[in-house]
Amino acid sequence: MPSQQDVAKLAKVSFMTVSRVINNNPNVTKATRERVLKAIKELSYYPNAAARALNSNKSRNVGIIFPRKDYFFVAPFCMELCFEVESRLKPKGYNLFLGSMTKGSESRELTAMFREGKVDGLILFAPRIGEEEIKMLADDHMPFVVVHGRSAGKEFSYVDSDNAKGTSLILRYLFDLGHRRIGFVSGDIGEMNSMDRYRRYRRELKAKGLPFDKRLVFFGDWSLESGHAAFRYLIEQKERPTAIFFSNDQMAIGAIKAAEELGVRIPDDVSITGYDDIKYASFTVPALTTVRQNIGAVGDKVAELILDTIEGKGEFRKIILEPELVVRSSCCRPVD
Amino acid sequence: MPSQQDVAKLAKVSFMTVSRVINNNPNVTKATRERVLKAIKELSYYPNAAARALNSNKSRNVGIIFPRKDYFFVAPFCMELCFEVESRLKPKGYNLFLGSMTKGSESRELTAMFREGKVDGLILFAPRIGEEEIKMLADDHMPFVVVHGRSAGKEFSYVDSDNAKGTSLILRYLFDLGHRRIGFVSGDIGEMNSMDRYRRYRRELKAKGLPFDKRLVFFGDWSLESGHAAFRYLIEQKERPTAIFFSNDQMAIGAIKAAEELGVRIPDDVSITGYDDIKYASFTVPALTTVRQNIGAVGDKVAELILDTIEGKGEFRKIILEPELVVRSSCCRPVD
DNA sequence: CTGTTAGCGCATTCAG
DNA sequence: CTGAATGCGCTAACAG
After folding, report:
1. Quick one: B184 and B254 in the same domain?
2. Which of A4, A253, B93, B259 has its CA 20 to 30 A from that of A101?
3. Greatest mean pLDDT among A46-55, A164-173, A306-315
């Protein structure tokens, strides 16, 4: 592998000039610059990342961490996010590390990549409420940004979508259709997102003067399977709901399967709604009425925030993105 | 950030001893070792990755590259693979970089991470046939491994599933059911995988003494949309197929949607099959009969191969994994 | 505008 | 078993 020295020799300059050319330092004559550029191309020289990192104390890497394996599998949302972020980081010269955080893993592991200088900053996806890791990161002043989570106790930047708003969007749509007995299926209740939606569900019920019936609530975990189980559970209640709010599309898809097995028609017998508007949402039968979270916008903001945080720009920023109701065909007026 | 020097001072040894302890060099007394370990913990010292990389000339990073954005989105398979690989690399001290290769991007970008020393090796997912990048990587002797692709011209290690076998599994199952007019929907025909399945489809037809009818073939691109379009196209043929082979589950899901729109019943009017057995495959209505590729096994092999390749162990290895038929309910005997 | 010097944190080599 | 010197490739700070 050629080094700056080799380039320098070929271009007949000192290696310092080579360094300047690479870093776009203006103090180089056009003529020399071009000579150096030519030499660089000729040798197909690439600056050594390790050396740069060593003396600038910056790795130009960002890590993105997902809470646990299962989550990752089932959430196309996460994948899209990865790419959105990556595509925005690359032009800035940053690369993206992928990390998982299996349940048992020590919080040390998280900070390790950091202390080792492998990453300059971390993106945490939907961390669990009260997560020790976050406290540690915050206490150690590590640059990190949370996606789908809010600060509680510790201060940090985050990007979240307005869960309360999205929930209201769905619920009011259901109310307008005439539904009064509406079931609720939560995601992993250990996550902010889930709690926010659940709380808003209860609040909307109360605002509408409707009773809260805990038999109409099922605590799921975002997975296809838990959506499937939730549907079977709710449909067996003595007074079955006329509509069910699923906290993500994934679970709603699981429910569609359960409905078929049970011979329950959607939406004729029960209306269901999802959340996220993943790509599959428009391909289910019936297509899902859901709430769209603009992943592109999330990725955009996340990339911006983590870069700013790394560069120490300004204060903590809290960004709440507006969700949007997407009406398809999984809901109709209740029969009774 | 504490360095070896700081640890050394605290433990009252030279920094060299610290280095030895970290690298598990046996030439350290138990007593000193423990003193050093204590100092390390006390300062919460972590070895600097950049410095290590600089002088060992190894980054201990591996990159995984997906061909284009769209592909990534639609293939849960890719995501699962990422995690499988990551979880196997981590215990070996390696981290995983995520990279995309948008269509327009120069082949230079691919080699760049390498030349910069950001990664020690690359995992290429389903590269297109005749890809320039691969040739470059091979010519430059960079350690890389291909998943879902075979060598053609250049020599390299790869992990693939037996596409021909999988295709036969499906086709023979369909033959046994009594189907004789079987449609074929390919994935992106620029990929090995697609070609392998297509060729085997034709071969099985011939072996069975069945005519090849090009009107029964649709060249898709793996996406939900192309599956949707394929179904509409095939179903409109004068002599419509009694069964359709989709080259992945994704497209089969798109087809289910199209069938619903057209009022065509699956499997009563047309049988369909998928490929991959992604998680959703068992949640569609009807559940998909498909071919399972063991992602865990793929991830396992990929991790093993890339590590071996990086460490220069042995020759190129070609690993072909056996697929398995998964019968669910998207197929039945043809009516006519 | 260009070159020289020094040092980032670590591991390899050689002395003790 | 332990320590001292040397250099990995690069850039910041200074000198010319």
Report:
1. yes
2. A253
3. A164-173
